[in-house]
Recover the amino acids of this structure.
């Protein structure tokens, strides 16, 4: 844990606004005192709704490591992650996550992901974006192929 | 809604296993009968924990459209999305999501994201990956800069 990394992330977030690159968020992936990945929010300029700071930083660090896991790494993010980024964190499995602002502060600033957290607790049939089963009888075919595949890497 | 798109996605998922590219998942973004984006799971081969089929397809479609929104688009995915992909869906805002396999079927095949869904409902202090506040008093600085920024695009 090092406050210097969070200070750097906060500076990156402010600079990201000044340069017009995106929203007021930044993140760093750090291991053993070395920054492995940096990310700023680039949703609007990269035309990528997944380009949240945490996702960008996780992807950058994994690319550098040549791994899909962030074992032993810490993630420093200027704000409590949204559900998408929280999911990415659980898949990447860093050791710890440090955040400065809470999601409540983000909501007050106009970045309200509370509705997404809420939606994830609802049955699929009650979601605002309709989630509809289609060809459920065929849904198992890829899993059957996976079960008998010669080459497969668990993740 | 068109079963043909789901059949194509299922074929892509099976082919993804055979070619050794990644897990048994695929997704398509379709609008007005045209495929705008395709994605297969490439987590292990791309060294990218966020390279789930839905994320890859959403990013591809947004890149093609030059937009960070998938207004009027349908997402066809071979399996009920994980929390990360669900979050991405809410940020991209497609019209509808069609899925074949349920998350329970995915869990039986060894892809269990139930623990992530559960983790998201817990207080931050109780998560398996520690989520720790750091410099909370400085967390609002980027939001203050955002509030007075000359150029900003809401998303």
């Amino acid at each position: 844990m090092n406050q210097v990394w969070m200070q750097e992330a906060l500076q990156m977030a402010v600079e990201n606004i000044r340069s017009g690159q995106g929203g007021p968020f930044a993140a760093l992936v750090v291991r053993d005192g070395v920054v492995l990945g940096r990310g700023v929010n680039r949703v609007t300029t990269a035309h990528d709704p997944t380009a949240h700071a945490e996702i960008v930083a996780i992807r950058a660090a994994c690319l550098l490591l040549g791994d899909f896991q962030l074992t032993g790494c810490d993630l420093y993010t200027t704000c409590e992650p949204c559900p998408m980024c929280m999911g990415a964190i659980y898949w990447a499995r860093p050791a710890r996550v440090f955040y400065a602002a809470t999601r409540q502060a983000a909501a007050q600033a106009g970045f309200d992901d509370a509705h997404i957290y809420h939606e994830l607790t609802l049955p699929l049939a009650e979601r605002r974006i309709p989630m509809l089963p289609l060809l459920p009888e065929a849904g198992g075919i890829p899993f059957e192929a996976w079960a008998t595949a010669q080459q497969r890497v668990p993740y």
Q: What stands out?
A: Strands of chain B lie at 26-31, 34-40, 74-79, 96-101, 131-133. The first helix of chain B runs from residue 3 to 18. The mean pLDDT of chain B is 95. The helical segments of chain B are 3-18, 43-46, 53-65, 83-92, 103-108, 114-119, 141-147.
